[in-house]
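Q: How do we represent a protein-ligand complex in a form that can be generated token by token?
A: Start from the inputs.
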Amino acid sequence: MQEEKEKSLNVKIRKGDKVKILSGKDRGREGEVARVLTREGKVIISGVNMVKHFTKKTKDGPGGIVEVEAPLQVSKVGVVCPKCKKVSRLSRDRTCRRCGAKIDEK
Ligand SMILES: [Zn+2]
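Then emit the structure tokens for the protein with zinc ion bound:
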């Protein structure tokens, strides 16, 4: 069922997490999660994966090219543990599997 599918995406990444891009053109870059699109299994990371958008002229501006962040697949990013500073897989309660630190405890 639809609900089951959404659950199986199992998005552990949250807004404000520091992540590293694992694949694609921005591979190796780090950024902070600006938004999590749970349904799509994607995240938007500040300043990463920028794409150009053409905007029409409006009363507010002359229009032209603006750069916006395109969502990235969750599978293409890894959460960076604030303690060991490495990309880590998180366990169910968002604990770093490398050093055991809880991601949410700052
Ligand atoms: Zn760690």
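Residues 81, 83-84, 88, 96, 98-99, 101 surround zinc ion (CB under 6 Å). The chain has one domain: 2-88.
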